């Protein structure tokens, strides 16, 4: 109210001042202009008259002053002289020489001009006129201006008041509108007021959306300190708030608020002295949608495979990972052979369906950890990381090409398609992604030049090594298919009696001259990598059982036959059925069969291993733990497994007589087996000292070169004659072999 009264006084003062000026200034101005104008007119008339008098002075310089009649004639009013009331001639001292008319009453105005004789002033002429006409006009001007002044006074008195009232109404409406907006907006808005030190702030007002956003954490926000609202983000956000207050700018950041599990965009803007408006926009779903769009932008629309952009990113990430783990990456560039003929003959729709089918088959043929991408047209790129052996790249390449061996059924048509594959290795062939892809592309073209439907390495040296290993793999496949593998049998003896108590079947792959083509370990390693271990294992099992049955038919004293199982074989779902079928097919009692497993095979998944061992034990076969002490040697699991025999590894037996540590290990294993009611056998027995050491510690079952090397089936049969003991065949047979 006080402000309104003060404003009213100011308006009245301004209105009075304006009215006064409107009433006074125009008459004064008019009077000044009119009087000056009239004076100028009178002066001009005086100058004209002075010229006429000057002619008379020149004509009669001495007596002109006495020519009254002539002077009166000159002073008579003539047209153009105006309404002069008095016209007179005076000398320089002011004495009247001649005059005409009466001196006007009241205020007057006059025009004066000097009369010259040869350039010397001798008299002056005055024209005097009354100011009353001008004053009357000024009065009428004043009356008109007074009316205008009244209007100005009223206008200034009323219009600002109305304008102020309108502004106040507009301000109130605007405030209500923005309050409605503040209360109804979907974004959460929070007003904070800062103290003088700007170190903390207090929530002074919030809208309903803000209460809803923070309700799970704070039932009421008003009155809380900023440190309570923002928690661990307080220090970071206070720096932002202070920046906004000092620079008076609007700043936005994205944060995940503690306790809300939401991503919000925080916009901070000044809201008056010491106040900030903080707007929270929930962008959780928006960011999720952005990620989805980004994901769609990273995959091929036709096949759903990663596109070139995502491929480059994954390849760079794989290179960084392999750099840390010191492994290699293989990049396979696959181009379908004669794909253009499909498009040209059957149309692009069929071609697209074929590409989708190829993509599905390739995806199913590679590991989940590998990346397959479609880079355009009929080109695919596969990235395989974690390689420690170049041969693995050849195996993957073979798998990729074999995915295309079977025909594709597209729109009721049987289609055949092959591919040419180029391979580049990181870091052997290149150290950046683009060069790796380029090299694989070049290698792919080399594969096409060599006849298509094959793979080609970028590096010639690498290719030669891979080809060599591939040839070994191929030879092994042929050896399996052509029955070129063989079995030998190493006797297991009781050192106390010299009798054969068991045989171990061992795999061999020899050249034509009898020399080993590969060691058994190499055979198993390659077979496990290329999947041949399953058919080889089946062949070994059936062959060994068949040989055991043949010895029985020959009337030989057949002991138990130990057959090794690899870790891959042990995990094969059909193992139990394989053993059962082999026993039934050869009409063998399970007591004659012992299955040897390594610790690593059964400890890979011990719970599953226990179940499978129990199933095998139900068949009646013996179970032996091979190479005991070299793997996990977990006694807590060992007691749970139905193991019948423990084999002491040759690495401990070899130096048991000279190394106290190995001797202690051997003694411990023997004692462990005896205490757990298991049989124990030592392998790698090569000297008389080994025999004496083992016998002295309670181990009487032995296997090794001291007694016999692995022997072919026909020579081994001689050891199985009833009554045949070691002392009779050791010198005659084993030494000669």
TrEMBL record:
- Give the record's keywords alphabetically: Membrane, Transmembrane, Transmembrane helix
Record's superkingdom?
Answer: Bacteria
Q: Which residues cross the membrane?
A: 12-33, 134-153
Task: Recall the GO molecular function terms of this protein's record.
Answer: catalytic activity
Segments forming domain EAL:
469-724
Q: Pfam families annotated for this entry?
A: EAL, GGDEF
Report domain GGDEF positions.
Answer: 327-460
Q: State what protein this is by name.
A: Diguanylate cyclase/phosphodiesterase
